[in-house]
Structure formats: C-alpha cells, structure tokens
Amino acid sequence: MTAARDDLTSVTVGQFFPYPAVQVWRAMTSPASLSDWTTDLDQNSVATGKSFSFTTFPMPEVNFGGRGDCEFTDVVPHERLAYRFTTPENSLNLQVTWTLHAEPGGTRLLVVHDGFDVADPAHVRLRALVREIWTVAMSRMGELLAVPGTGAEPPPDDATSFSLGEFYNYPPRTVWNVVTSKEFVGDVVNEHDLGAVQEGGRLTVTTYPIPLVGFGGRVEMQFLEVREPELIVCTFEIPIMGGITALTLTWRLRPVDGGTQLWFTLSGFDPQSPLNRQVRSVLRGGAIPVLSRVGELLEGRGHRV
User: Fold this and answer.
1) Which InterPro entries match (predicted)?
2) Res 163: pLDDT
3) How far, in Å, CA of 96 to CA of 18, rounded?
4) Which is nearest to 109 in space by CA: 119, 98, 117?
5) What confidence score (pLDDT) does residue 235 get?
6) How far apart are CA 177 and CA 199, in angstroms?
7) Which residues contact 277 (CB under 8 A, 6 or more apart)?
8) Using CA atoms, how far apart are residues 11 and 111, in angstroms rounded to an integer?
9) For site-directed labelling of 101, which of 13, 128, 189, 206 has its Cα 20 to 30 A away?
10) Dist CA 76 CA 4 (whole Å)
11) Are 235 and 246 in contact (CB under 8 A)?
12) Which pLDDT value is given to residue 212?
C-alpha cells in the first residue's frame, strides 16, 4: 500500500516498518512515545473519548499560543488512532489520524493531519511545519521499534531522558577514536575547543541558538567520568525560559560479537515542565544524525580518523 497524495487541506506522512501491527501499536502507545508529547496520558488513557493536552513553544506566525487540547475520537487497537486537536484561542481545529496497514513483511504506518484552511496564510505555514513534525515522529517510531540483534540492553528512555543506539562493525577502540576526535566534534557543533578527553576536563562548544527558549548557543561542558574505551560522562547547563536545566550526556561503548554497540544518552529533563519536554524532543531530533556521522567516519566517507 502506498500513501495517498495529500491535498492543500491535509498532510499525509507514511513509513513501512518490518514489524507486525501489534508491535507498531505498542511502540506508538508506549510510555517513551507518549512522554514525548504529554504527561497527561498513559497506555490506559489511549481510548475513545479520553482528553489530553500539551504545551510547547508559542508560534505567533501560525497563530498558535503554545497549548493544544486534544480528544481521542476513534481508537481501535492495532488498527487506528484518531484525535481532534484544538487551541484555547480557537485558532486551530484539526484532525489527526494514525492508521496501521498490514503489508508483506511488516506494517505501513500512515498519519493524516487535516483541516487546514488554504485561504489562511498562517495555516499554509503551519502545514509545512506539521509535515516536518510527523516525519520526525516516524523516525521516532523506528527508534522505539529497533531492537539490537546483539542483545545489548539499552539505557532507560523516559520523560527525563532519551537514548539512541547504533551497532558498528568495528572494535570499541576504533569507535572510541572517532567519538573523541576533533573532526567528529567539529562536525556536530559550529565551534569547539576539544582537548584531551579526561575526567575533570572542560569543553566549550558553540552551536545553533534556540531563541524561543532563551538558549544563546554556547555550552560549557565538563567531563565527569572517562573510562577508555568504554564510557564518557559529561555535564552541562542550558537556560530554558529564564531557568537553568542541568543535563548529563553519556556515551557507552559495549563490545559485542562482530563489533560495538554504542549508546548515546541525554538525561536530566524535568518531566513536569512542558518546555523541558519540548526541548527534549528537539534535542532528540538533532541527535539522530550524530550516530549516522559516526558510521560515516568509520566507513571512511570523508576524512579518516
């Protein structure tokens, strides 16, 4: 089955996953998935008639004040999940529908977001933004569904943290040399002063600012624990709407048959803070290409480390 072509009043995004529908549904409604959006829901709350809300960054350019109110309008486990999305200021009244379609070898997951007013310039801008949001959400489903064949257990992934993992066909020492290289760090931030990776060492990085939350783009990091070639733990603080959030960044390298399982974990988010939850989602999306870049360097694309 292929995704239907959406018109200007809707957005349709789809992806095929090599897993049965019951497993895809479990990922969609898992605590890790739900915590990306709201703290109002748990797995038992995903039912027709149940309501929830979320708070994110205000976007005046699309007449969105930052709060969305939702109600499930149709929930059929393993088949369909739909909800109505409105705003307190009555600027938006949209419908979101997830459907799961069995195909040979797995399940195609489709999300349709409709109700956009083609005559409203703000809706036109929002429609483009929504497509990007659901594309990231599909990638998130892939992360939740992926289970390392090596048997390596992932770190916790909940409202206070997120973890991304990747397996590489290289020994831990080789992966370590990439992760701690100036070339790799320079690829993922704009500027840095990386010296020796050792306990007590400090690292200044300059990256992209996030004006909506008051983040200027400069981060001072300190290495708390370094065990070569197994573990790197560092801490840093970022301002979020006038407050300070202290985060911990951890790299874990585990030798397994045929290579190395690498885990990237960022923890310290406040699950009670809507803005913390949204920053967590933004940083998760930004971290996905990081592991791909490790693989590229390992495979020799670009300059070898």
Assistant:
1) ASHA1/2-like_C, START-like_dom_sf
2) 85
3) 24
4) 98
5) 96
6) 17
7) 35, 36, 37, 38, 39, 54, 159, 269, 271
8) 8
9) 128
10) 21
11) yes
12) 65
